[in-house]
Specification:
The protein has helices at about 15-20, 130-150, 150-160, 165-175, 180-190, 205-215, 230-240, 250-265, 285-300, 305-320, 355-360, 360-365, and strands at about 1-5, 40-45, 65, 70-75, 105-110, 220-225, 245-250, 265-270, 275-280, 320-325, 345-350, 370-375, 380, 390-395. Strands 1, 2, 3, 4, 5, 6 and 7 form a seven-stranded mixed sheet that branches. It has a five-stranded mixed sheet with strand order 11-10-14-12-13. Strands 8-9 form a two-stranded antiparallel ribbon. The two termini are about 30 Å apart. The protein is built from twelve helices and 14 strands. The chain is flat. It is about 35% helix and about 20% strand. Helix 2 (about 130-150) packs parallel to helix 7. The structure holds guanosine-5'-triphosphate and magnesium ion (MG). Guanosine-5'-triphosphate binds near residues 226 and 251. The site of magnesium ion (MG) has 4 residues, from helix 1.
């Protein structure tokens, strides 16, 4: 699972990325601060089932804090895109190829309307953030159209000659874009393309197909950032204008301030919290206290900074993921070394038991016999869909 953080320049993509990953990639109030993609790891929260066993857990991959598991999610921060990027404007869109593996896009916009399409600061309220949601989709479409179209006619003709299936041909074209076969079929069905004659498809028709491919396979969520400078009405207007793409207000700068202060032990704050406490006021200077006061005002107005919530909506709502806890002992919920609930994996909702086994280890998938539900102790067959929060043992040959 990987999420691409995308958008026009200077809207706060890197700030949001740094807040989520606690990395330190450059941020600045001008466009094209980021010139190449950065990868990092954020985390989403789920309740840890360890309390059901009346014991604590021993997490390997996903830390547990106060009964909450923080499950890792990969993130990619890319340079800003400008309208016309596919024609080489701004930094072009070559770097989008680093988003091939992304399962969805978190688009950061300046909800305060204070950044031009090219990322230059302007007076708040003078720019319309819904515009960038529209044209960013167009840039993504032309990127996918380009990938789809390479040597298209010649290849399409040989598909026709060989009588091969057009959906398999298309799947081959978009391998590496991590678009599942079901999405290719769904996209094809949404168009009225003549499946028997792909070589006759025009560029416009391939563009239409790319649009449906993106809609079927790459869900988007808009982070209405710089919400500290935006009005609730502006965020609502944006929501209305970009529906059905959902909008989540965020204050990336405030979240970054809080997470860094918490890491330094200056405040007590967990991402997603509606409040924080200053741990040691004497260690803070006047400027830091002022900054924290400002953050307090933002929390009072918006509830939270919205950053953690935006990531979680993306992962759970848009990408339809759930968390499963594989164990080796279904009674004690331990691995072979006696560690309680060592792993927490993100998987698509209702993933069948055997696919969960494959995710743990390909050997377990290949030699799958059955799974055992850690709560009911019932045996589950290969196709049995798992529920969010499932604790499950995989039984395999050897
Ligand atoms: N007021 C306000 N400013 C923010 C917020 N988030 C980021 N900024 C500021 O916006 C400016 C741009 O932030 P970056 O994170 O560098 O933006 P970017 O989208 O990565 O920019 P490029 O890499 O140039 O495309 C910086 O001055 C940030 O401090 C926010 O929530 N509120
Ligand atoms: Mg950046």
């Amino acid at each position: 699972m990987e999420i691409g953080v995308v958008g026009k320049p200077n809207v706060g993509k890197s700030t949001l990325f740094n807040a989520l990953t606690l990395l330190d990639v450059p941020m600045a109030p001008f466009p094209f601060t980021t010139t190449s993609p950065h990868r990092g790891v954020g985390a989403v929260r789920v309740p840890c089932p360890h309390h059901e066993k009346g014991t604590s857990c021993a997490p390997g991959n996903a830390k547990c804090v106060d009964g909450v598991r923080w499950v890792p999610v990969n993130l990619v921060d890319v340079p800003g895109l400008v309208p016309g990027a596919h024609e080489g404007k701004g930094l072009g869109h070559q770097f989008l190829d680093d988003l091939r593996a992304a399962d969805g896009f978190l688009q950061v916009v300046d909800a305060s309307g204070g950044t031009t399409a090219e990322g230059v600061l302007a007076d708040p309220g003078t720019q319309d953030p819904s515009e960038e949601v529209r044209w960013l989709e167009e840039e993504l479409i032309s990127w996918v159209t380009g990938i789809l179209s390479k040597d298209f006619e010649r290849n399409a003709r040989s598909v026709e000659l060989e009588g091969a299936k057009v959906e398999e041909f298309l799947q081959g074209r978009v391998t590496g874009l991590s678009i599942p076969p079901a999405a290719v079929l769904a996209a094809l069905r949404s168009t009225s393309l003549d499946r028997a004659h792909p070589s006759a498809w025009t560029r416009a028709e391939r563009t239409e197909l790319a649009k449906h491919l993106l809609r079927a396979a790459k869900p988007r969520l808009v982070a209405a950032n710089k919400a500290d400078r935006a009005t609730v009405d502006a965020v609502e207007a944006l929501r209305g204008a970009v529906a059905p793409v959902p909008v989540a207000p965020t204050c990336a700068e405030a979240e970054l301030t809080l997470r860094r202060a918490a890491r330094a032990g200056l405040v007590r704050y967990r991402p997603g919290d509606a409040a924080f406490e200053v741990a040691e006021p004497s260690r803070l200077n006047a400027a830091q206290l002022r900054a924290l006061d400002e953050v307090r005002g933002i929390l009072a107005r918006w509830g939270t900074t919205g950053v953690q919530a935006a990531l979680e909506r993306m992962v759970f709502e848009r990408l339809g993921q759930m968390v499963v806890f594989p164990v080796e002992d279904e009674q004690r919920w331990t691995d072979s070394r006696g560690r309680v609930l060592p792993d927490a994996f993100l998987l698509p909702l209702h993933t069948p038991a055997r696919a969960v086994a494959y995710r743990v280890h390909s050997d377990l998938g290949e030699n799958f016999i059955r799974a055992i539900d850690g709560r009911t102790h019932r045996a589950l067959g290969a196709d049995h869909p798992l529920e969010p929060g499932a604790v499950v043992r995989i039984v395999s040959r050897k």
